Amino acid sequence: MVVSTGRRHIVNFRSTLIIIILLVGLGITYFLFLHNSEQSSTEINKPRISEIYNLQPNEIQKIHIQYDNTDLQNIVIIKDPFSNWKITSPFITNADTKKINELISEFVNKQIKEKLEVTEYKKYGLEKPTIQIKLWTSQNGQPKTFSLGKKAINYSVYTKEATEDHIFLIESSALQDLSKSPNDIRDKSVLNFNPNSITQLHFVKPDEFICQKLDGIWKIIQPLNLDADSDLIDSMLTELHALKVSTFEVDGDIGTTLLDKYGMLNPITKLKVNRNDDSINLDIGSRVINSDPQTNNEEEYVYVRSSNIGGIYTVSNQIIKILNKTLLDIRDKRVIDFQREDTIKFEIELEQQKTTVIKLDDTWELQTSQKILADPQAVSDLLFGVDSLKAVSFITNPNDRLSIYGLNPPKMLLKFTIKGEDKPAILKVGKNATEDTVYVISEKTGEIATVKRGLIDKLYQSENWLSNKQVFHFKIDDPIRIFVKYQEVSTESNTRSFTLQLIEGNWRLTSPIKENANNEEIKAFLYRLIDLRIDEFLSKDSKKKYSITDNITGLNSPYIQIIIELQDEIYNLQIGNQDSKNRYYCRLKKHSGRIFLIDSDVISNLMIKLSWIRNQ
């Protein structure tokens, strides 16, 4: 009996323990899953502040935030007619509109978790609230005032609207969302205007001049009427708009002592930026070295005073590079204005030579005694180069005697005929101003300027530079007969040659033997000829200067001679001796006066053996 009773006690204990474990498990399951699901489902349906108090984020016009914490300054923020936010207290400056909109949206979209009927507010921290926020939907209307008190359970904070007796709970994250210093929410843009809205720039230092935007084009209107470099100004404004304030130094009223301390009594640069209905004054003061706390690197900044931000702050010294512009920097420095895309003819007149190039459909042709195709890349480079030719300096008080600058008569005369225009655009080139620059004058403006010599030196080569560098102008199926003659270097009388004829689409050797040729090898040879390019033309001056004769070039007895016969044209390429740079003197017989040079490695690829072209 004793044993039986003990066993029953053990069984009862085990059963009780199992029941307890099951109940605990069910409880845990409920609180972890079912309870949270019910709570989440309930919270989804909780009303938001915006719904209960009719506060839509985009309708808020004014905000006043007060703090119990004296470390934080009370803030007043007002929306202007352009929907931009401005801080009006504790000082006046632009606010970061995006941040303010986010702050409003976060608050008014908080859910009201629970409504509580209470008789006194002290124990909830609402008699002396941690934060009080007032929201106006009309500048002159009555605000909705919300007080945030102590934190409650479940990440909540007690909240009260001023006109109501009850209180309610919202997420406690509202305390952190609203705890902002003025510097946290102020606009850190140096220029908060859209760059495209700016219509006038008044540069005060280092040079004083005014630029005006007229029909989308920038002009200098004072002290002279000049075209401005619109691309440069637009780029400058875009860079300025991207700059951000590094640190805020002084806000509010600034006395003479502080202005002197930060270099504002004699600023490095002064600029006034205007748009249709507003303006900004920018003064750049002293330089200052600041250390980056993360990298410990020292960087140079400058103090800046701006009428749109207020106070004095630091900005990267990049602002000096952007704004420190002279009249010469800003003015349009192009020395000749013409539409290169519409140019149909241009002329280069030198003292003893005139080069004329005419556009024929999609090609350019040199008008010499024998018409020659122009090099399309060289023509493109010339037109682009002249159109973008910019002055290094302008002669502000030129002497009336243009001969002093080598401009009467000019050393070079450039004429560009534009489609649909009666008169050509003319640029005169004079003597060297310095080792690297030369005087020029545009017939249209009459202004004397200096430009870099790089392009001008190429223009003196005129015909040689502009001539097409391709030796042969035929397609692979055009040749009908090929004659090649090589002269061995070792023995003048030792020569070898061969002749090929195209018969019914196949190449056949006709001399020194008669048999079918290797078509693939002949085509490869023709492709090398089609790809043959001239390194450099030998100018008439060079031939005269270095006394280059046919005996020197070896073209009176060519080292290689290649004749390509087409249906209506014959090419006769003569290749002579090498120059000091191991390039071969060459010429086409029909243009015997035009000697050019080709690299020796290229010429060696034209050397083929009879055994290679025989069809074996």
Describe this structure in words.
- It is elongated and about 125 Å long.
- The strands form four sheets. A nine-stranded antiparallel sheet has the order 4-3-2-1-6-7-8-9-5. A nine-stranded antiparallel sheet has the order 13-12-11-10-15-16-17-18-14.
- Mean pLDDT is 87; it is low at 33-42.
- The chain is built from 17 helices and 36 strands.
- With 616 residues, it is an alpha+beta fold.
Q: What would the keywords be for this entry?
A:
616 residues, alpha+beta, 5 domains, 17 helices, 36 strands, 25% helix, elongated
Strand order, main sheet: write it out.
4-3-2-1-6-7-8-9-5
The main β sheet shows up as: 9 strands, antiparallel
What percent of the residues sit in helical stretches (DSSP H or I)? 10-25%
Q: What portion of the residues fall into strands of 2 or more residues?
A: 25-35%
Question: What shape does the CA trace take?
Answer: elongated
Summarize the structure.
The chain is α+β, with helices and mostly antiparallel strands and 616 residues long. The chain is 25% helix and 34% strand.
Give me the secondary-structure topology.
Layout: H1 2-44, H2 49-52, E1 62-67, E2 75-79, E3 85-89, E4 93-94, H3 97-108, E5 114-116, E6 131-136, E7 144-152, E8 156-161, E9 167-171, H4 173-178, H5 182-185, E10 198-205, E11 209-214, E12 217-222, E13 226-227, H6 230-242, E14 247-250, H7 256-261, E15 269-275, E16 278-291, E17 298-306, E18 312-316, H8 318-323, H9 327-330, E19 343-349, E20 354-360, E21 363-366, E22 372-373, H10 376-387, E23 393-394, E24 412-418, E25 425-432, E26 437-442, E27 448-452, H11 453-459, H12 462-466, E28 481-487, E29 495-503, E30 506-511, E31 515-516, H13 519-530, E32 536-537, H14 540-545, H15 550-553, E33 560-565, E34 570-578, E35 583-588, E36 596-599, H16 600-604, H17 610-613
Antiparallel strand pairs: 1-2, 1-6, 2-3, 3-4, 5-9, 6-7, 7-8, 8-9, 10-11, 10-15, 11-12, 12-13, 14-18, 15-16, 16-17, 17-18, 19-20, 19-24, 20-21, 21-22, 23-27, 24-25, 25-26, 26-27, 28-29, 28-33, 29-30, 30-31, 32-36, 33-34, 34-35, 35-36
